[in-house]
């Protein structure tokens, strides 16, 4: 009985230290601010796995590219969509970044108002950091 109480006390102490101890990542302390999340709204949102690879069209329902990736940076609060434009079967394509807020999502099709292949090809090329 004493051993069980001692083990439970030790486990509780370790758990308390683990919860209250600061987390360190690359030498920088981090804090976590908890927010209330509307789970109903979140559940009806769009999963990255369903968006990546989806067609990007304009108002004329012309395909202007596909979603290659979604990126969230550490200093921006908005995600960016990396759109693959031009080329054929991945050869000769250009990656460009657009704010995800500019993309209207419905099913597996993304609407980017005012976009054409030419206007997207005119944007600076996005390259992943190595």
Structural key phrases:
4 helices, 2 domains, 130 residues, alpha+beta, two-stranded antiparallel ribbon, 6-stranded mixed β-sheet, SH3 type barrels
Written overview of the protein:
The protein is an alpha+beta fold. The chain folds into 2 domains: 2-39, no CATH class; 46-121, SH3 type barrels (Roll), CATH 2.30.30. The protein has helices spanning 2-20, 39-43, 48-51, 117-121; strands at 23-25, 28-30, 55-57, 63-71, 80-85, 94-99, 103-106, 109-112. The strands form 2 sheets. The chain has a 6-stranded mixed sheet. A two-stranded antiparallel ribbon has the order 1-2.
Which term fits the overall shape?
globular
Indicate the radius of gyration in whole angstroms: 23 Å
Approximately how much helix is present in the residues?
A: 25-40%
At CATH level 2, the architecture of the largest domain is: Roll
Quickly count the helices: 4
Instruction: Give the strand line-up of the largest sheet.
Output: 6-5-4-3-8-7
CATH class of the largest domain, named: Mainly Beta
In terms of DSSP E residues, the strand content is 25-35%
Give the overall pLDDT as a whole number.
78
- Report the count of strand segments: 8
- Count of discrete domains: 2
Look up the CATH topology of the largest domain: SH3 type barrels
The succession of helices and strands, N to C, reads HEEHHEEEEEEH
Topology diagram in text:
Blueprint: H1 2-20, E1 23-25, E2 28-30, H2 39-43, H3 48-51, E3 55-57, E4 63-71, E5 80-85, E6 94-99, E7 103-106, E8 109-112, H4 117-121
